[in-house]
Design brief:
Length: 357
């Protein structure tokens, strides 16, 4: 499937290809630069020319919903700006920030105030997002404010009727679930009541539709994890890790997924070790194991980034694998963390799909 000639002409003239962010049966999403009215800007492109024929109808439906919502929210500044929209592709502005599960705004009252305000502005415009349970659809901008992205399931209402009120309530309830995760002490009594009371459609969905949804997305579309690694990250990565941990002097291993233009989804393994020949030994062990396909990239590191509790910060390693390196500095709090990540970044392996931001 190809893009319409008019879409292709605009993108050929105004789009500069950058980093592939995601590819699934509903769209291809990449970050790059777009020539706008006032010069070239960082942007995100969603295109439908690489989706399989059998998923095109739902893919186009989701694309149309996002295009309509972004047009309606064009001046709210609580989500990405719609820079251009064609028949099967659209370009939205890039928001300088990271997803909620990466930012982890623990105890950040200002962030959740801005999130509630952003939601109120969308609802006043008649837009209900309908997919805010996902942490990756909430961003924490470099300015500390909350932004919403990925409007593929959004509904635009002309009237504030019963269906609108239900959808708006569920948007708010999902925001409060995130607030409960990262700032439970900041919840008001009213917010706790909202959390305790799902709407009737939500209860019905959990009891019936969600089971069908999981069966389809996991069984047919292969969506099994938040990072987009699918079955390869969920099923293969643990087996690959076991093999790598058997290599002498390997203290720990972290494996993350990244979108790859050739393979679709790639795996990137980081091994904590002091041996100078560790990468060759690890690759040899993986080849000899006769197990799952080895990771596309294997990098030996002197130390893996960890949080205060000692847990590996896989969210940072995933940004390395995806070449979203400009999003990493705000996530580092100490000089030691910055020095560690500088060494990892200097030796990173995924140089095929990179872009100078």
């Amino acid at each position: 499937m190809t893009l319409p000639a008019q879409d292709e002409a605009v993108l050929s003239a105004r789009w500069t290809e950058g980093v592939l962010l995601k590819r699934d049966v509903f769209s291809t999403v990449e970050r790059g630069r777009f020539q706008g009215e006032h010069g070239e800007v960082d942007a995100v492109l969603r295109r439908l020319d690489q989706v399989p024929w059998w998923s095109f109808a739902p893919a186009y439906h989701l694309f149309s919903r996002e295009r309509r919502a972004l047009r309606l929210a064009h001046d709210l500044k609580v989500g990405p700006e719609l820079l251009w929209a064609g028949r099967r592709a659209l370009v939205r502005g890039f928001i300088d920030g990271v997803a909620l599960h990466l930012a982890r705004p623990v105890g950040d009252a200002a962030y959740f105030r801005s999130a509630k305000l952003a939601l109120r502005q969308l609802h006043r415009r008649g837009i209900c997002h309908n997919d805010l349970a996902k942490e990756q659809n909430w961003l924490r901008g470099s300015d500390g404010r909350a932004y919403v992205t990925d409007f593929q399931l959004a509904v635009c209402f002309k009237r504030r009727g019963k269906l609108f009120r239900i959808a708006a309530y569920e948007d708010l309830r999902h925001l409060l679930k995130h607030k409960r995760t990262y700032a439970p002490d900041l919840l008001t009594p009213k917010e706790r009541k909202i959390l305790a009371r799902k709407s009737a459609p939500a209860r019905l969905w959990l009891a019936t539709g969600k089971k069908v949804y999981k069966a389809i997305t996991r069984g047919v579309f292969n969506f099994t994890d938040r990072e987009g690694g699918g079955r390869r990250l969920v099923n293969d990565a643990p087996l690959l890790r076991v093999t790598m941990m058997r290599v002498d002097d390997v203290r720990d291993v972290a494996i993350v997924a990244f979108a790859d233009r050739r393979a679709g989804v790639g795996l990137y393994a980081f091994a904590e070790t002091s041996r100078p020949d560790a990468e060759d030994r690890l690759k040899a062990a993986l080849d000899a194991a006769n197990g799952p396909k080895p990771p596309e990239h294997v990098q030996a590191v002197a130390a893996l980034p960890r949080d205060a509790s000692g847990q590996i910060r896989t969210e940072i390693l995933q940004l390395v694998a995806m070449n979203q390196v400009d999003l990493i500095p705000p996530l580092l709090a100490t000089d030691a963390d910055r020095a560690l990540m500088r060494d990892i970044l200097d030796a990173r392996k995924n140089l095929r799909d990179r872009f100078s931001f």
